[in-house]
Amino acid sequence: MVKFDNISELKEACKGVLSIEDDKVAVLDEKKLRAGLIDTLVYNAVFGKTAEIRGWSRWVIKMAALSYGAKPASIQGLYDKMGSGEVKGFTVPAINIRGMTYDFARSIVRAAMRNKAGAFIFEIAKSEQSYTNQNPSEYAAVILAGALKEGYKGPIFIQGDHYQISAKNFFKDRNKEVEGLKKLTKDSVESGFYNIDIDSSTIVELEKPTIKEQQMLNSEVAAEMTEFIRSVEPQGVTVSVGGEIGEVGGKNSTPEEFRAYMDNYLAKLERDGGFKGISKISVQTGTSHGGVPMADGTIAKVSLDFDVLRQISEIGRPQYGISGSVQHGASTLPEEAFHKFPEYEAAEVHLATGFQNMIYDSQYFPKDLKTAIYASLQERFSAEKKAGDTEEQFIYKTRKKGFGVPFKEEFWGLPQKVMEGITKELEDKFDFLFKKLNVVNSYDTVIAAVAVPENLTFNLKREIEMSA
């Protein structure tokens, strides 16, 4: 793949395909863009030689996507209709992409187009951005490039998942921790993330005597972050904000906790100026992120309390107008569980580790690359191995970090037949999930519900700064 030496080369490559004038980009030749130029641009957006080349590549992709009709969007309008009961019957999949992001995203888009699905989300967690070396500016550009490559037009929902407060850092220096999260959030919104999940459930204080007191800090920080998001969202965009009452892997959530959180959260928003609140609430039902690996590396079966999802959704919609409950840590559940999410009225389900497992365990994945990655992980992260863990457990917990440096570019450069084999398996899985979650034929519903302002734009200078 060609790496540009300078911006003049980038602009020359775009001639006749994209018009680049001042602060605007227009698609002149869709066929040539999709046939090859977009591949070159996205490669330079990630692996370009300088921050300037990476930033320019990202900006051109994003502006071209706006011109083409693949537009970053907030899912708020759809969730408002779910909250009022006008729209129901499906659960929106939110898919975390840790590696092979361009080809991975394309497989999602192909499955969506085949199923006429519009209700699906691309997301990446705060922690994933770190260990996979994908900041918001890069991630959004790659997702939009994937949509362009496949010829998708419509709202593209890109989400910051688990924008989490570190309890340790928070109780040491509250302002510093919150300000750090605000910076990440601002960068994300400016990059095209118009959906942000604030996770301050980490500072729930279960040792407090009342549920209201237990949820107090959680709701206050969530409200503060919501107000901040409202101050940085683009004109005409209402960013969809998610809250969380139960840390995944902890005790199961209850309706009482939800009410305590919401009442204090909304009271603070009202006192501070009547800001628009959250659109959904993440709860704990018995899962854990990535599942629990057994000694042989297989995943332990979990007992998931679906009634928690239904109970909190049934309270959240009529009383608070939110879309409903959100399930995390679901990708490693057995296939027969997925039809239950719409049945039990979950608004959204988050899916991550299962796809990572599919990549590493695919019959197409090169054995020599896997061996090299595992050896590197054992060398670099041996201190993270817990007493009593088998090698299989250690690798299972750690291999998510293999998608970052130094193997990130190798994942992107897998041989074509290997990439086609892996992404076909992923595409088939998304086809299955879209059907089980009932988002098939949701495209028209999304188009009718979601407003995308015509004046959206991206700032070239900021893209370069965020590419450094």
Structure overview:
The model has no long low-confidence stretch (mean pLDDT 94). The two termini are 21 Å apart. This protein folds into three domains: 7-68, no CATH class; 74-359 and 427-453, Aldolase class I (TIM Barrel, Alpha-Beta Barrel), CATH 3.20.20.70; 363-412, no CATH class. The chain is α/β, with parallel strands linked by helices and 468 residues long. It has helices spanning 7-14, 30-47, 51-68, 76-84, 101-114, 126-131, 136-150, 167-172, 174-191, 211-232, 255-272, 306-320, 340-343, 353-361, 367-380, 391-398, 408-412, 416-436, 443-449, 460-466; strands at residues 18-21, 24-27, 70-73, 92-96, 121-125, 154-164, 195-199, 240-244, 280-283, 325-327, 346-351. The relative contact order is 0.15. Helix 2 (30-47) runs antiparallel to helix 7 (136-150), helix 3 packs across helix 20 (460-466) and helix 9 (174-191) packs across helix 10 (211-232). The strands form two sheets. Strands 4-5-6-7-8-9-10-11 form an eight-stranded parallel barrel, surrounded by seven helices. Strands 1-2 form a two-stranded antiparallel sheet. It contains 20 helices and eleven strands. 52% of the residues lie in helices and 12% in strands.
A few lines on this structure:
With about 475 residues, this protein is α/β, with parallel strands linked by helices. It contains 20 helices and 11 strands.
Distance between the termini: 21 Å
Strand content: 5-15%
> How many individual helices?
20
Give the radius of gyration: 21 Å
Helix content: 40-55%
CATH class of the largest domain: Alpha Beta
CATH topology of the largest domain: TIM Barrel
* Average pLDDT rating: 94
Write the CATH homologous superfamily of the largest domain. Answer: Aldolase class I
**How many strands appear in the DSSP assignment?**
11
> Strand sequence of the main sheet, in spatial order?
4-5-6-7-8-9-10-11
Report the major sheet: 8 strands, parallel, barrel
Overall structural domain count:
3
Corresponding CATH architecture of the largest domain:
Alpha-Beta Barrel
